[in-house]
C-alpha cells in the first residue's frame, strides 16, 4: 500500500493547465465526458496502488464533481481521505483559448459560497479544506471573522489547512501556524510546492511538521519540468534527468523520491493524468536515493524568484 503518496486532480478536472506535455498527454480528448472518464481511470489506478488521499479544489474545473461521481460509484470505498480547496473560482468555461482560467478571492463571502458548493458535491466525505494559495497580501491569514467561520467548520470534524505558492511561501506557512481560534491552532494541514528546483520552503515545512501540522507536498515534478518528455533544457532539470538515467529510472521517480525523502513530508501528491503515469510516480516509494545523488539534487535549486517568474509565465495549454 502507498502510505505516503496522494493523487491530485488539478490536471484532469479541466481542459487547460500549466503542466508541460499536455498536448501529448491529452491531445484533443478534453470534453467533459472524456476528462470524467480519465479522472475515474486515474482514481481507479490510484486506489489499486494503495493511495488513500485525494486532493482537489473548487478551481479544478469539474474535478470535485468527477470525484463525487467516482465515490458514488464505489460505495464500498470508505477509507479514502478527501481534501479540497477554496479561494479560486474556475472561469475558463471549458476552453483553451481564454485569457483567464481562474480568479482568486479569499473573502469570507467566497468561503461561504464555495464551501456550500463543495459540501453539496462531497458531503461528509470532505476531510480537509485548504485555503487555496494563501498569501499575506490577500489578508486571508489576518481575517478574524473568516477564521471564526473556519473554526466552526473545524468543529464538525473537517481539518482546516492552507496551500501555498510563490517565492514567499515560507512567510505564509509561518503566519498560518500562528493563527489560533479558541486557543487551538486553526491551520493543521499545510500543502506547499517543494521540488528539487524550488526547495526554499523546506525550513518552514519542517517547523510546521514539528508543530503538529500535516505537510503535503505538491508539484514535486515542477509542473512537468521533472517528468519524462518535459523537454526542459534548464541546467537543473537537465542534470536531474541525467541523474535519473544513471540510476536507471524515469526522472519523475527521482523527483518524487526526493520529496518522499524529506523528513517533514507527510504526503507527496502525484499529478498523474493516466494510469501509466500513476504507476511510474508510485514506484518512487521503492526508490532509495544514494547519498551522493541526494547531495547533487540539493545543488539544483534555482533562485525562488526566478523559478516562480518562469512558472507564472507558463501558458495554459
TrEMBL record:
SUPFAM superfamilies: NAD(P)-linked oxidoreductase. Transmembrane segments: none annotated. Residues 40-300 form the NADP-dependent oxidoreductase domain. InterPro entries: AKR2_Oxidoreductase, NAD(P)_OxRdtase_dom_sf, NADP_OxRdtase_dom. Gene3D superfamilies: NADP-dependent oxidoreductase domain (3.20.20.100). PANTHER family: D-THREO-ALDOSE 1-DEHYDROGENASE, NADP-DEPENDENT OXIDOREDUCTASE DOMAIN-CONTAINING PROTEIN. This is Aldo/keto reductase. It comes from Pseudonocardia bannensis.
Amino acid at each position: 500500500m502507498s502510505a505516503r503518496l496522494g493523487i491530485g486532480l488539478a490536471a484532469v478536472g479541466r481542459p487547460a493547465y500549466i503542466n508541460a506535455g499536455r498536448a501529448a498527454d491529452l491531445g484533443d480528448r478534453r470534453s467533459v465526458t472524456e476528462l470524467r472518464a480519465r479522472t475515474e481511470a486515474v482514481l481507479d489506478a490510484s486506489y489499486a496502488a494503495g493511495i488513500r488521499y485525494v486532493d482537489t479544489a473548487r478551481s479544478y474545473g469539474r474535478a470535485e464533481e468527477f470525484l463525487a461521481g467516482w465515490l458514488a460509484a464505489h460505495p464500498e470505498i470508505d477509507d479514502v481521505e478527501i481534501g479540497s480547496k477554496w479561494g479560486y473560482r474556475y472561469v475558463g468555461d471549458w476552453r483553451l483559448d481564454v485569457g483567464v482560467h481562474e480568479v482568486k478571492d479569499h473573502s469570507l463571502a467566497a468561503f461561504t459560497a464555495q464551501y456550500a458548493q463543495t459540501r453539496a458535491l462531497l458531503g461528509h466525505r470532505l476531510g480537509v479544506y485548504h485555503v487555496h494559495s494563501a498569501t499575506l497580501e490577500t489578508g486571508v491569514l489576518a481575517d478574524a471573522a473568516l477564521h471564526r467561520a473556519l473554526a466552526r467548520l473545524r468543529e464538525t470534524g473537517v481539518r482546516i489547512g492552507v496551500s501555498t505558492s510563490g517565492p514567499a511561501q515560507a512567510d505564509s506557512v509561518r503566519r498560518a501556524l500562528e493563527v489560533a481560534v479558541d486557543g487551538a491552532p486553526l491551520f493543521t494541514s499545510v500543502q506547499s510546492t517543494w521540488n528539487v528546483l524550488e526547495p526554499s520552503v523546506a525550513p518552514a515545512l519542517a517547523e510546521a511538521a514539528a508543530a503538529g501540522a500535516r505537510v503535503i507536498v505538491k508539484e514535486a515534478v515542477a509542473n512537468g519540468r521533472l517528468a519524462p518528455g518535459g523537454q526542459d533544457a534548464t541546467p537543473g532539470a537537465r542534470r536531474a534527468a541525467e541523474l535519473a538515467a544513471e540510476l536507471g529510472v524515469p526522472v519523475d521517480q527521482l523527483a518524487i523520491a526526493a520529496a518522499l525523502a524529506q523528513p517533514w513530508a507527510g504526503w507527496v501528491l502525484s499529478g498523474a493524468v493516466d494510469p501509466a503515469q500513476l504507476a511510474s510516480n508510485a514506484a518512487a516509494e521503492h526508490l532509495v536515493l544514494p547519498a551522493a545523488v541526494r547531495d547533487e539534487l540539493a545543488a539544483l535549486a534555482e533562485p525562488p524568484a526566478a523559478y516562480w517568474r518562469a512558472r507564472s509565465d507558463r501558458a495554459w495549454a
